[in-house]
Amino acid sequence: MRVLILSFYFEPDLSAGSFRTTSLVNALHDILPPGAEVDVVTTLPNRYQTFSVDAPARESRGQVTIHRISLPRHQSGMIDQSRAFYSFAKGVSAIIAGRRFDVVYATSSRLMTAVLGAWARKRTRAKLFLDIRDIFADTMKDIFSGPASVAVGGIASLLERYAIRSATRVNLVSPGFLPYFSERYPRQHFTSLTNGIDDEFISAGVRQRRPSPRSGGAGTITVVYAGNIGEGQGLHLILPQLGLILGDGVRFRVIGDGGR
Questions:
Q1: Which of 23, 121, 142, 157 has the most crowded Cβ, counting Cβ within 10 A?
Q2: pTM of the full predicted structure?
Q3: Cα 227 from chain centroid?
Q4: Please, what sign has the CA dihedral across residues 17, 86, 52, 66?
Q5: Gyration radius from the chain CA atoms
Q6: How far apart are CA 164 and CA 128, in angstroms?
Q7: All domains of the chain, ordered by start, with CATH?
Q8: What are the φ and ψ backbone dihedral angles of 85, each rounded to 5 degrees?
């Protein structure tokens, strides 16, 4: 059995896709039967400009081989991201050229890795398992406005249809995605395996319980957000308005990085 895994991000990079795919590969590594091979095609760490870490371009872990593709320097803008993905797709094409796989697995939040997985499935004559982590076509309609929203949303919907209909199975990271996809693709079989909880949080546990500052009479409470800071999160639109409404009684602390 030969498995191809496509994930734009992978350890040691930081992102939901990296954490999710790393957990999958580690689990597969422990249960692979003799003779099975897994090829992971990803990128060298590039998620955040403020996070820099070295990783080998090619790494072997027993029956698992990890290929990391070098990307041109890029910011979080759509043009830069498009160029970066083109380099990734070109690298994937070179790595899988002339090879056959039994299964192609692609995890995707921005849709294009799912489209790349559909293309790789056809080229390698494999079955395709998609892991969908966002409703990208719907997100594009929210980011753009006017005629651009209609045009970009239409193109994204066409690409989404191609990817979903090419898949043997589709997993959705949230059950909340089911109504959207089930309505549009009633013949497709969907599962919903969520992100779960990473081992780091389980091992950390709750070291010390403290009462809420509010219950102790403090006049201000602190709300902490830790994660990606991009267009999709919309914090730049939400927090200023929320701050005006709540006033001095609430302080927001944002920890993370991203396009915003």
A1: 121
A2: 0.84
A3: 13
A4: positive
A5: 21
A6: 10
A7: 2-191 (3.40.50.2000), 206-257 (no CATH)
A8: -70, -35
Handedness of CA 233, 237, 178, 168 (dihedral sign): negative
pLDDT digits (tens, 9 = 90+) for 45-80: 987 767 778 899 999 999 999 999 999 876 666 778
CB 66, CB 58: distance < 8 Å: yes
CA-nearest of 44, 25, 52 to 36 is 25
Cα separation of 152 and 143, whole Å?
10
* Residue (of 181, 196, 91) closest to 132 by Cα position: 181
2-6, strands of its sheet edge to edge? 58-61, 64-69, 37-43, 2-6, 103-108, 127-132, 169-172, 190-191
Rounded Cα distance, 184 and 190, in Å: 12
CA pair distance 192, 68, nearest whole angstrom: 28
Q: What is the pLDDT of residues 154-176, one digit of tens each?
A: 899 999 999 999 999 999 999 99
